[in-house]
Structures are given as structure tokens and as C-alpha cells.
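Researcher: Good morning. I'm working through a list of sequences from a screen, and I'd like to move beyond sequence-only analysis. For each chain I'm collecting a predicted structure so we can compare shapes side by side. This is the next one on the list. No need for commentary yet; just the structure.
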Amino acid sequence: MLIAFVCTMTFLPAAISLFRPGGESAEVGFRSAVPLDEVVRRHPWPLLLPFAILAVLGLVLLPRLGFDADPLHTKDPSGEAMQTLHDLGDSRLTNPFTIDIMAPDAETASTLSDRLGGLPMVSEVLSINSFVPADQPSKLALIADAATLLGPTLMPHEPAAQATPDQIRAAAGNAFEKIVPALAKLPAGHVLSAIAADLKELVAAPGPVLVAVDQALTRFLPSELDQLRDALAAQPVSLQSIPSDLARDWVLPNGRARVQVVPYPSAGSTSGLREFVAAVTAIAPDAGGSAVTIVATSATIIGSFRSAAIAALIAITAILFVALRRVLDVSLVLAPLLLSSLMTVVVIVLLPLLLNYANIIALPLLLGVGVSFNIYFVMNWRAGRTSVLGSATARAILFSALTTGTAFGSLALSRHPGTASMGTLLLISLGCTLVASLAFIPALLAAIPRPRVSAEQPSPAGALKSRSE
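Model: Good morning. C-alpha cells for this chain:
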């Protein structure tokens, strides 16, 4: 913007002086809009009333303006990585929106876990105590019974000779023959039908393929059997017997214990995540973790851009006072700016759309775009020119809005959700700004007594005539 300003103030005047473009032979405004100017001048209030209603509606809906706190929603959801992440988020064990709390010791962690586990948004609370099973005597008795029954079967034996392709083919054929009678009773697409088809292919497969399939199916079987034998040899568990490589993830050397709070998948939404964090932090104010960080970050972002918008509005007002030097003129420029902002709020809430980490960047920019249209009409009115819609200024503003809207529209067509949402918000705001400039400002200026043109400040038409003479 600074480079564009420098070029406008230096290169453009030099180019005009060098090429000396000829003046327009006739008025370049919209001739068809001249009768509308007369209608607006005679009946401004019926046109101002709907805009007043929209402004009030915008103020009412302003608290309902939502913000999407999840930064992942600005990513392309169709990508493989995002689809995998969403699948993991639906599981209580891999949910990324967790909260971590540091308790003074394991006993305090257990008490805190009991309190947090009763919250409606909490799916599960994990701590070092979660690895010590409850009601161990009865569970160990059941495991001992299972070990008595399965132990002899699971005892390690001498490695068997590798199966030959003929043995594998015979086993596959035998299994296929046992499945075939049941296929007629199964619904279409049943998993057993797919297994039968695979077995049929194995029967006709060459030897190397059969050996490869056998190795793939039995590769992890020995380790699985070892794990099952270990599980059947279970012993009583206490905090002291938990393996050190597991315990160090939950207890620090000084005894402080970590508590992890896992939400239900419904916490993936902005409102659900905010509710989850509020409920947990009400019990544990020092809680941290990804969920707390996301909510706190969104609050920081919203506060920062609120401050930026207020600062931009103050700066715009100060510059307008320097340029116009009259409270009325400054108010006439700011009124459509505030109206277009409220109209944007109405459209966003009713669609509905959400602000996010990408499109919120556009909010302070919209203030500058709004002022750049309004000030030209006010300057013309101040110079005594009451024609608004039929003027060359209206034509220039319309084409300026169309070129700007084309640039914003290209962002709205982006495949990146964050960039597309930014373009959509800019288009909506630009449309509201254009409506306020071409409909609200003419009626507002018509409702105010026409200013007197001083001798020192000729109208644009008079100034042009003087220069031509």
C-alpha cells in the first residue's frame, strides 16, 4: 500500500503531464441514473429507514458473530493427512483436544481424576493410577483359570517344518469347501464371501504365491502368542511395579503426577471445545494442553484484531479530521462505513459463516476499503454538487469496486478453505460497502441541507471551467 501511494503521488502525475491526455468531451457519469438522483433528493427518508433497521439488526446480531477456534478447519479436509487426523479425533484414545494437569502427587491425581471424570464433556481421565487395575483379586483368579485351560496349548514347542505349497493349497481348498454351503444364506457383500473368493484364488495360485501368503499371515503369530502367554502370567500390579519407561510419562522424579483429561468427540467443535475447557479449568485453573492452548489462542487473536479494528477506526477518524476539518463531514464519511460493517455482520450471521484464523485478517482491511468510497461523495457534496448516482464519481467507484471484487473473488475460488473464506468475507463486505455508498450515502446527503459553496472553494464544475478558460 505504501508503494502504491508513492506511485500515485509521483509516477501518475508525471505520466499525466508527459502524455497530456485529452479531457472528456461530455459527462462520463451514468446518464440513466440522473432521474434516480431526483427521486432520492425528494424522498430520502423511506430509503434511510431500511438501512436504520439493518444497523439495529447488526448491533443485535453482533454478539452472535462466531469464531472457529480450530486451526485445522482452515486446512483442506479432503487431504489424506486431514482425513486420518479426523479419524483419530473421533477416538477417545487419539483425540488431539486433551487437557493436561500437574498434581502434587499420585494420590492427589487420583482424587482430581474422580472429580473431573464426572463432568459431562469428559470421556476419560488418565493418570498413573489408571495403570493399576481395580478389583485385582477377582480378575487375577479369572486369569489363573484361563491359564490353566490354555497354558498347555500355548507352551512353546519345537519349530514345525515350513509348510509346502501343496499343503497350503490343500488347507485353502478344505477351508473353501467348508464355507461354500453357508454362502447362499449370507447377504450380498458379506465378509465371508470375500474370504471365500480369496481362498478360491489361493487354490489356483502358483507355489511362490502360496508361500508368500503363508509367511505374511504367520509372520507376527509367534510374538502374538508370546504376548498371550505373558498376559496369562499376570501378577498383582501396584504403583511401584509399573515399568519405569511407562511411569516416567506420568510421574516426575519429584513425585508430581500428570493427569490427562480426554473429551468426547463433540469437543471437536468450537463451542464444545470452549465448554470442555471452561468446565475443566473451573476445577483445575492451572490446566494446560492443546485444548486450553487453542481456546486461549483464539481469545488472543480475537482481542488483537478487536484492538486493531479500534485503532484503525481511530486513525481513520483522525486523518479525516485533518483532511475535512468539520465534524459533520467526518460523520458523513464514517456513517456508511459503520453501516456497511453492521450489514456485513448481518450477512455473516444469517448465512451463517464463521470467522477463523485466516479471514479475520480481512477485518481491519475492510475499514480502509469502506472509507475510500465514501469520502469522494462527501467531498463532492461539500463542494456543492448534489448529483450522486449520475456523477462520474459513482461510475469510478463502481468500476473500482468491480476490479477490487475480481481480486477478492479469485481468493474465494481457492481450494484452500482458509484462503477461500478470506475471499468470501472480503466479497461480502465489499458488496455491503458498495450498497452503502450507492444507496445509503445519496439518501443521507439528500436528507441534510445543501451546503453553501464559498468563494474560495468553487464547485468541481466551476473549477474545471476556470482551468479551461
